[in-house]
Design brief:
Blueprint: E1 3-7, E2 10-13, E3 18-25, E4 33-39, E5 46-52, E6 58-60, E7 68-73, E8 78-83, E9 92-99, E10 113-114, E11 118-123
C-alpha cells in the first residue's frame, strides 16, 4: 500500500520560512517523480515543485522559483520542500504526490498517489 505523509506545515508571518517533508512508503519503484502541489480555498490545485529521484532534476512554478527548494533524502525515502520568503499568497494546503519517473512534470493529473496534505498559513 502506497502511503505519502506530509508534515511541517504551520503558521508564519510574511518573510518567514517553513520546511515541508513528504515521507513515501510502499511505492514499488525506487526511481520516481515526487511533486509538491498546493490548493488555496476556492482555487485549483497547482504544482509548485517536483523532483525526479533518479536524475535529481527539479522544476518549479514561476510563482515560487528562487524562494522554494525541493530536495530528497533517498535513505529516508523523503522529499523536502524548503520554503523561504513566504508571503500571504503562499497560504494553501500543500500536498505531495508520486508517479513514475518518465515525463516528470508539474501537472497534477499525471500523479498516481497523494498524501493528505499539510496546511501552510502566512499572515501579513
Amino acid at each position: 500500500q502506497v502511503q505519502l505523509v506530509e508534515s511541517g506545515g504551520g503558521s508564519v508571518q510574511t518573510g518567514g520560512s517553513l520546511r515541508l517533508s513528504c515521507a513515501v512508503s510502499g511505492y514499488t519503484y525506487t526511481n520516481k517523480c515526487v511533486g509538491w502541489f498546493r490548493q488555496a480555498p476556492g482555487k485549483e490545485r497547482v504544482g509548485v515543485a517536483r523532483i525526479n529521484t533518479w536524475s535529481g532534476s527539479t522544476d518549479y512554478s514561476d510563482s515560487v522559483k528562487g524562494r522554494f527548494t525541493i530536495s530528497q533524502d533517498n535513505a529516508k525515502n523523503t522529499v523536502y520542500l524548503q520554503m523561504n520568503s513566504l508571503n500571504p499568497e503562499d497560504t494553501a494546503m500543500y500536498y505531495c504526490a508520486v508517479r513514475g519517473p518518465w515525463g516528470c512534470s508539474l501537472t497534477s493529473a499525471t500523479y498516481d498517489y497523494w498524501g493528505q496534505g499539510t496546511q501552510v498559513t502566512v499572515s501579513s
